[in-house]
Specification:
By secondary structure, the protein is an all-alpha fold. It contains 15 helices and 2 strands. Strands 1-2 form a two-stranded antiparallel sheet. A hairpin with a 2-residue loop joins strand 1 and strand 2.
């Protein structure tokens, strides 16, 4: 299946905009609303990611119970992830996002309300967190589906949209917990949760007002492939997408392993200096944010295959530096470069994937991609802990570098074949 066969060759120009759905190089009003809504929602969610366990610690003092709240947030994606495509397909991307936001707002508000009334116990909190996780299952895939429908089908414009959405995620992950940590001593934990509820309400109303009802509308169950596993079947049946998902799983395992290994590396190699461990982890987050901004700038200026291949080399190569006894500053540069290269590779790859999908396949396939990518997280953390305990830091770092090299090499070979046999631009 080629891109040319699944997308029209002529690029439609939206009213008042450029071929990529922008006006004078700027995102359209509708697309800007999608970006802003995503940023506000993600920031509130990341703030609550710290506030809820902190609330448990304040009220019970139990780290085990706080960990249970963390686990409850991931459970719905594991159980219901692939069903998210059905929701998007039937409701449409815009309606899915609006409903998710406007329903999550009062559900989140229940937490501080019940706390004030003295009716919030652990069982109720876990039930609320599970409900929030279930409502969030189709949200991120719906973002990308809606962006696809607001843009032209060219891989470059889709890559730019994906880089913007990745920047929203990386930025909120970097700013949200720090902002929550600063606000909790000033206004209290429950006030931070109230802010999260307000963020969902704002996001839903913004999308309702700024994105017309006809954009991202439901096509009905007949508009795309049927069945819960339709997206997975399409990924498996397309040679390029199956190769891309193999690398996605490998990178998911590698990145989680790296996250756990970095503080252990600082502890063992630099005599337990926590400042170096914190700096390495902060650099990893900051690199992702910088890379997302760079991807947004470069996505429409550099051919997708060229940008992805160059970035993939920069993802893997610096990680071999971790095996060498170099100064801490060199490690920081290596981690930052690898982290920044990841969104530079991901944006064109997601653009190529999105442009490759036949009409009606977006909800199921993109939801499958989001679900598979998310599920690799817990597996990576479990595997990393086992390898560190049994093999040590050095062997784990060898594994990290080898996984990154395999994932990058696999994708580079697939991209070279794509460029030689099809029109990936």
């Amino acid at each position: 299946m080629t891109i040319a066969a699944t997308r029209p060759s002529a690029v439609p120009v939206p009213p008042g905009g450029a071929p990529d759905g922008t006006a004078g190089g700027r995102p359209s009003r509708e697309l800007t609303a999608v970006y802003v809504a995503g940023a506000v929602t993600a920031l509130g969610t990341q703030m609550t990611l710290l506030a809820l366990p902190w609330l448990v610690l304040e009220t019970t003092g139990s780290a085990t119970r706080a960990g249970l709240v963390f686990a409850a947030q991931a459970l719905p994606m594991a159980l219901l992830g692939f069903a998210g495509g059905e929701v998007i397909q039937r409701l449409g991307a815009r309606r899915t996002m609006v409903v998710s936001d406007l329903v999550r707002a009062p559900v989140v508000a229940l937490i501080p309300l019940l706390q004030i009334l003295g009716a919030l116990d652990l069982a109720v909190l876990v039930a609320i967190v599970v409900a929030l996780g279930a409502l969030a299952v189709p949200y991120h895939a719906a973002q990308r589906v809606l962006a696809m429908e607001l843009l032209s089908p060219h891989a470059r414009s889709l890559a730019r949209a994906n880089s913007a959405l990745a920047g929203v995620t990386n930025g909120s992950a970097f700013v949200g917990p720090a902002l929550a940590g600063a606000l909790i001593p000033l206004v209290g934990t429950t006030s931070v949760v109230w802010l999260d509820a307000a963020s969902f309400a704002f996001s839903g109303l913004l999308l309702l007002r700024r994105v017309p009802a006809g954009r991202g509308g439901a096509g009905g169950s007949a508009a795309g492939p049927r069945g819960l596993w339709a997206g997975v079947r399409h990924l498996y049946g397309d040679w390029f997408l199956s190769r891309a998902m193999l690398s996605t799983v490998v990178f998911g395992l590698m990145l989680r392993t790296l996250m756990i290994t970095l503080p252990v590396l600082a502890f063992t190699r630099f005599e337990g200096d926590a400042r170096i461990g914190g700096l390495l982890i902060a650099t990893d987050g900051a690199g992702g944010l910088v890379g997302s901004v760079a991807a947004y700038v470069l996505a429409t200026r550099v051919a997708p295959v060229r940008l992805a291949c160059t970035a993939l080399v920069c993802v893997a190569l610096p990680l071999w530096t971790l095996l060498v006894p170099v100064p801490a500053g060199v490690l920081v540069v290596a981690v930052g470069l690898s982290s920044a290269a990841a969104p530079l590779a991901n944006a064109p790859l997601m653009g190529l994937l999105s442009a490759r999908l036949p009409d009606g396949f977006g909800p199921k396939v993109l939801q499958a991609v989001v679900t598979i990518s998310t599920l690799t997280g817990p597996l990576g953390f479990l595997a990393a802990g086992a390898v560190l305990d049994r093999a040590g830091v050095a062997a784990t770092l060898w594994g990290v570098a080898a996984l990154a090299t395999f994932g990058s090499g696999n994708l580079i070979l697939a991209l070279r074949r794509l460029r030689a046999t099809e029109d990936p631009d």
